[in-house]
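This is your field. Have a critical look at the following sequence-structure pair:

***
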Amino acid sequence: MEWMAWTWPTALFFIIIASTLVVFTILAIKFPETPRQGILGMETTRGDRLFITLLGSAFINLAWLGIVGAHQPFALGVCLTYAIAVFRWV
C-alpha cells in the first residue's frame, strides 16, 4: 500500500508531535498546574494551550500553502511566533 508518501520530513514531524505530547504528559504529572485565565476569557492549562497552538499552526500552514505556495520554512517562523503568543497570553 503506497497511499501516503512517508518521507523523512513527514516522519520527523510526527515524531516531534509525539515527543511533545510525551513531554507535556510528564510535565503535567510532575508539575501539576492550576488553570489560568488569559485573553480569551476562559481558563486554560498547558495542554489546552498546546492544542490551540497545534490547531492554529495547522491552519496557518494550510493558509500559507494556499496563498504563498510550498515554501514552508517561513510559515514555520509564523507558527513559532504564534506558539509563543499563545503560551504567553492565552
Remarks:
- The chain is about 70% helix and 5% strand.
- The first strand starts at residue 36 and ends at 37.
- The mean pLDDT is 90.
